[in-house]
Design goal:
Number of domains of chain B: 1
Mean pLDDT of chain A: 92
Shape of chain B: globular
Low-confidence stretches of chain B: none
Order of helices and strands of chain B: HHHHHEHHHHEHHHHH
Structural class of chain B: mainly alpha
Helix content of chain A: 25-40%
CATH class of the largest domain in chain A: Alpha Beta
Number of helices of chain A: 9
Number of strands of chain A: 10
Structural class of chain A: alpha/beta
Number of helices of chain B: 14
Oligomer: heterodimer
Mean pLDDT of chain B: 87
Bound molecules: adenosine-5'-triphosphate, magnesium ion
Helix content of chain B: over 70%
Distance between the termini of chain B: 29 Å
Largest sheet of chain B: 2 strands, antiparallel
Radius of gyration of chain B: 20 Å
Distance between the termini of chain A: 41 Å
CATH topology of the largest domain in chain A: Rossmann fold
Strand order of the largest sheet of chain B: 1-2
Shape of chain A: globular
Radius of gyration of chain A: 18 Å
CATH architecture of the largest domain in chain A: 3-Layer(aba) Sandwich
CATH superfamily of the largest domain in chain A: P-loop containing nucleotide triphosphate hydrolases
Low-confidence stretches of chain A: none
Chain lengths: 242, 308
């Protein structure tokens, strides 16, 4: 079976800095791939390349065999790729429900009017915000802003979901809820790329992991394999520049 | 339709009916004031349809308006008047589409400067063309009366409000609100941001050109410096922001007081009109960032907040 997503030699340069350096990896259908690595190793930049927020300097990205590198973000979204942002992005002038509807109207599977409203309400229920649809964004707690963003992203019914540290900053109970939620997303058939620092989440969610350090891939395998890899341990301990 | 919408519809219909009767009551001073108010209502409301949600400040009103006046000026002897208004609308929309394609991918600052330059550019081109043919301006001699111009503007205003209401309920309107809040989120929600902005920018472009075409007979003699005066663009921006762009009726709340003040100042102290423009601008920046609409919302919030 051909992979859902494949990166070949994906490279992004910012002036003299090579933030992502010739990355190769595949993500298979229904898989949760963990993209991990120390701060500044290029994980978010890799997600930005996949989602179309940034354009590749060189290399290629294919979605089910069709190239998507070079497409605008809206076209990639319409093909079923949706993402959250490391720094949560919401629509401040709208209430919670309209923030979610925003994801439903123009995306992969489109809804409008009463259908979009009902769908938004059901997603709010699902992420744990049932009954908060009329709340203004400004009154939400940090964790709730993350929930709204996830609901918006799910509103387009994506087949490939990109989560950039969605579990960061959650307390232990919220973390268990979050992990269960992401599991349920995989169980309903979505493919997920998870950028994460939380080791518990990586161990319990990921089928495979790709480890990045200073823009390059230094390891790939099951969570157990990569987390015991000496290269990976050295990278996390911070002497990767030596 | 909800009961609030039905109430608004009835109120709008009554207001329109009253406006239509104005020329029966007075054909001098008040008709000319009414005409100015109708003109600026059309221009400021259509301006706010685009600039309200996107926060792009367009100073291109004069460019579209001028193209409209010249459409009438050049065509009134050969074509029926209504077709000139339609033609002007198409020219305006086309021009707006071209400007939009060229600039709306850029940041807001470039857009402001480009739109300001546009009116000047078109004016220079027309001045040059007229110099080639040896004329300075055009006579627009028709039997269209001031009352007829006024009624056409009222009809155009009704069309603008209807368009604005429909856009507000449409996917395009929703897309523009998302873009205004966060363009990155918009793109990642599947919105073709450039296309949405260009489409919506065509509305004020078409409306301003139609307004110019309708008003041309009133001027009798048109020349580039009159048709493309940058003052018009600034007036429209100030009035729309003074009223507030957060609601469809917001600009109207700025147009009425501003036009009345402007008329009385320009008849008593003709040199002080720029001062009014400047003072209004300061008022908006320092006291009314969201216009009268924002002020009203704040007062309403305080009242309901005090009760509960
Ligand atoms: N738009 C940009 N312009 C210039 N440099 C950038 C830009 N985006 C990221 N970088 C740089 O690229 C490198 C990789 O950043 P990236 O955000 O991808 O790291 P990350 O792995 O997501 O880190 P973290 O775990 O802290 O989120 C960093 O050195 C960062 O400063
Ligand atoms: Mg990151």
């Amino acid at each position: 079976m051909s992979p859902v997503l494949s990166l070949r030699g994906a490279t992004k340069r910012f002036g003299g800095l090579v933030a992502v350096n010739g990355i190769d990896f595949d993500v298979a259908e229904h898989q949760v791939l963990g993209l991990i690595g120390p701060n500044g190793s290029g994980k978010s930049t890799t997600l930005n390349l996949i989602s179309g927020a940034l354009t590749l300097t060189s290399g290629s990205i294919k979605l089910r065999g069709a190239p998507i590198s070079g497409l605008a973000a809206q076209d990639i979204t319409r093909r079923g790729v949706s993402r959250t942002f490391q720094l949560v992005r919401l629509l401040p002038s709208m209430n919670v429900r309209d923030n979610v509807i925003a994801g439903a109207v123009f995306g992969h599977r489109r809804r409008w009017g009463a259908e979009a409203r009902d769908f938004a309400e059901s997603l709010l229920e699902r992420v744990g915000l049932g009954g908060k649809g009329q709340m203004p964004i400004g009154q939400l707690t940090y964790i709730d802003t993350k929930r709204v963003e996830l609901a918006r992203v799910l509103a387009s019914d994506p087949t490939l979901l990109l989560l950039d540290e969605w579990l960061a900053g959650l307390n232990p109970t919220e973390l268990q809820d979050g992990i269960a939620l992401i599991k349920s997303l995989r169980d309903e058939g979505r493919t997920i790329i998870l950028v994460e620092h939380v080791m518990d989440a990586i161990r319990s969610l990921c089928d495979r992991c790709v480890v990045m350090s200073s823009g390059t891939k230094i390891a790939e395998g099951t969570p157990g394999e990569v987390l015991s890899d000496p290269n990976v341990i050295r990278a996390y301990l911070g002497d990767d520049d030596a | 339709m909800s009961s609030v919408e039905i109430r608004n519809l009835i109120l709008t219909a009554i207001a329109l009916g009253v406006c239509i009767l104005l020329p029966m009551a007075d054909s001098g001073y008040w008709l000319s004031i009414g005409l100015s108010i109708a003109m600026f209502t059309v221009l400021a409301t259509s301006w706010a349809l685009f600039s309200g949600p996107t926060h792009y400040i367009s100073l291109a009103t004069a460019a579209f308006f001028g193209v409209g006046t010249y459409t009438t000026g050049l065509g009134f002897e050969t074509l029926p008047f209504w077709s000139l208004v339609a033609l002007a609308g198409m020219f305006g929309a086309l021009m707006a589409a071209l400007v939009g394609l060229a600039t709306l991918r850029l940041s807001g600052v470039y857009f402001v400067i480009f739109t300001l330059g546009l009116a000047e550019l078109v004016r220079q081109v027309i001045t040059w063309a007229q110099n080639q043919s040896g004329q300075k301006g055009l006579y627009v001699l028709t039997d269209i009366t001031e009352a007829m111009i006024y009624w056409m503007l009222i009809a155009l205003a009704a069309a603008v409000y209807l368009t604005g209401w429909l856009i507000g309920r449409s996917r395009l309107g929703f897309a523009l609100r998302i873009i205004g809040d966060d363009e990155t989120v918009a793109a990642h929600s599947g919105i073709n941001t450039a296309r949405a902005k260009v489409l919506l920018f065509m509305v004020p472009g078409a409306v301003a050109a139609m307004t110019g075409a309708i008003l041309a007979p009133r001027y009798v003699y048109i020349e580039p410096s009159l048709a493309f005066t940058p003052m018009l663009s600034f007036q429209v921006v100030i009035m729309a922001l003074l009223g507030g762009t957060g609601r469809l009726w917001g600009p109207l709340a700025g147009v009425v007081p501003f036009t009345l003040l402007w008329e009385s100042i320009s008849s008593n102290f003709p040199n002080q009109t720029t001062l009014l423009l400047g003072l209004s601008f300061l008022l908006i920046v320092y006291a009314l960032p969201r216009g009268f609409v924002g002020l009203l919302d704040r007062l309403r919030q305080r009242v309901t907040g005090g009760v509960s």
